[in-house]
Amino acid sequence: MSRVIRAALFQTAWTGDKESMIRVHEQAVRDAAAQGAQVLCFQELFYGPYFCQVQDKAFYEYAEAVPEGPTVQRFQALAAELGIVLILPMYEEEQPGVLYNTAAVIDADGSYLGKYRKTHIPQVQGFWEKFYFRPGNSGWPVFDTAVGRIGVYICYDRHFPEGWRALGLAGAEIVFNPSATSRGLSGYLWQLEQPAAAVANEYFVGAINRVGVEELGDNDFYGTTYFVDPEAKFVGEVAGDKETELVVRDLDMDTLREVRDRWQFYRDRVPGAYGPLTAP
Question: Which of 35, 104, 207, 216 is the most buried (most CB within 10 A)?
Fold first, then answer.
């Protein structure tokens, strides 16, 4: 029998406050579970605005401990209730002044499996992330979940092929890339880079982007969330570019073996030749 995972992604606009944003996402979990979804990933910094459009220390208050903080614990209970795997992209405070852009991974029984901390941190107009985050120090973990082996890459990370490959080498079957990316800046890359990564590394990619223009700046977040398979084929339709949308798709995991048997990219790698790639 074929192995099929029903997976979900959720794109939405900033509601204006953290609590209502969390409630919107709790409802998305319930809606996804009602449609049979087994795993769901939210957008980058899901319970807040994309505050990196400005540099203001007031937004440090959005950071929480992971997993000890209230938001992770709240969604652990919901995951256990509904039997769904959750990926929660959050603002993490390890200790005062030590802050990360992080995704917590919760298994279908509500257990906390671990975290990925965003590795590549931009500092360009409208994306002043170095003001808020240290570069991640988690490496590229792959999490053994109730639905299979899951990896996470976050937004700006997607421009760097090394992490995509590290996740593949560690056995990822699906990699989620939660993002906050703006129409004028990255639109031409959005449906190019992540399908290319899915092909090069022979796994599924779930790409999530928020929607709308927020009060902190001019960034126009354009949604168009999607799943793509290892042959660069979109799984179902790409989401719209303006509205809140829950994307639920069936991913045929047998595709992974078919593609890997056909191309053998992992067999034909030559690691000894790649030393210059790690030079500073």
Answer: 207
